[in-house]
Design brief:
- The protein has 229 residues and is mainly β.
- It contains 3 helices and 13 strands, in the order H-E-H-E-E-E-E-E-E-E-E-E-E-E-E-H.
- An 11-stranded antiparallel sheet has the order 8-7-6-3-2-1-13-12-11-10-9, with no helix packed on it. A two-stranded antiparallel ribbon has the order 4-5.
- Strand 12 and strand 13 form a beta hairpin.
- 21% of the residues are buried.
- It comes from Flavobacterium xanthum.
C-alpha cells in the first residue's frame, strides 16, 4: 500500500473523528456554450445555476436553490455584415436533486421541469480516472488534476476534474466521485464548469433522505425508451 493511500486513509479516519460526518457547500454550475453550438449564449442561457450540497455518513445530496422558469430567448447573430434574429428555447428545471449513496453505489436524479416530474435511479457510475501532474488553487484549495471520459447515461464527454486531498471525502458534484480526495471543480467538454464556492465542516450528524416526487422510479434506459415513444 503506497504512502499516498495510507495518508488518505488516515485523514479519512481523522475527519470522521474531528468533524463528525457533515460537509456542506455551495456549487455554482456555469454554462459556457450550448451543446453542439458555438454561438454566444443568451443572457438567460448563460446564467449560472446554484446548488446546495450536503455530505454525511457516506451519502450526499445536491439541491437546486436558484429557481428560474423556462423561456424563449431572442438573440442576434451577425453574418456577412448582416444581423439575423434567432430564437431559442431555454429550459430550466424548477427543482433538481442529485443523490448519492456511496456505500450502496446508488445514484438518483429527481427533478421537475416544465411542470413534469422525473425520478431516475441508477447504479452509481464507475469512472476510469487518469491522474495528471498538474495543480492549481481553486477558492483557496490546492487542487490536483484528473481526467476521464464520461460514458454514463448515453454520454460521451471529456471530463476534467480538480480535486483536493486536504478534504478526505470521496465525492464531488453530480455523479462524479472516485478520486483520492474531494472534487472541487468539474469541467465538462468545455460546455460547463461546476465549482464549489464554499465548503464548511460541522460537528453534527445530518440525516440525508433519499429524494422522491410524484413520478415513478425509472432507470435511465427505461426513461429513454419511454421518452422515445
Amino acid at each position: 500500500m503506497t504512502l499516498k493511500i495510507l495518508t488518505f486513509l488516515f485523514l479519512s479516519m481523522l475527519i470522521n473523528q474531528t468533524y463528525s460526518q457533515t460537509l456542506r457547500g455551495i456549487i455554482t454550475e456555469t454554462p459556457l456554450k450550448g451543446i453542439g453550438d458555438e454561438t454566444v449564449l443568451s443572457k438567460k442561457a448563460a446564467k449560472p445555476m446554484t446548488f446546495s450540497y450536503v455530505y454525511s455518513a457516506n451519502k450526499s445530496i445536491q439541491n437546486l436553490i436558484s429557481i428560474e422558469k423556462s423561456s424563449i430567448d431572442t438573440t442576434y447573430i451577425e453574418k456577412y455584415g448582416e444581423k439575423y434574429e434567432t430564437t431559442s428555447s431555454v429550459s430550466r428545471p424548477t427543482s433538481l436533486a442529485y443523490y448519492k449513496n456511496l456505500e450502496r453505489k446508488k445514484y438518483k436524479v429527481v427533478a421537475t421541469q416544465n411542470d413534469q416530474d422525473f425520478n431516475l435511479k441508477e447504479t452509481l457510475p464507475s469512472l476510469n480516472w487518469k491522474l495528471i501532474d498538474e495543480s492549481k488553487t481553486i477558492n483557496g484549495y490546492a487542487c490536483k488534476k484528473a481526467i476521464t471520459t464520461n460514458t454514463a447515461f448515453n454520454s460521451n464527454q471529456s471530463i476534467v476534474a480538480w480535486y483536493t486531498d486536504s478534504i478526505p471525502v470521496n465525492d464531488g458534484p453530480n455523479h462524479y466521485q472516485g478520486l483520492p480526495g474531494f472534487i472541487i471543480q468539474i469541467e465538462i467538454d468545455n460546455n460547463s464548469i461546476s465549482t464549489f464556492d464554499k465548503l464548511i465542516f460541522s460537528k453534527e450528524n445530518t440525516p440525508i433522505e433519499e429524494p422522491n416526487n410524484s413520478a415513478p422510479e425509472l432507470s435511465f434506459s427505461d426513461y429513454s425508451k419511454q421518452s422515445a415513444k
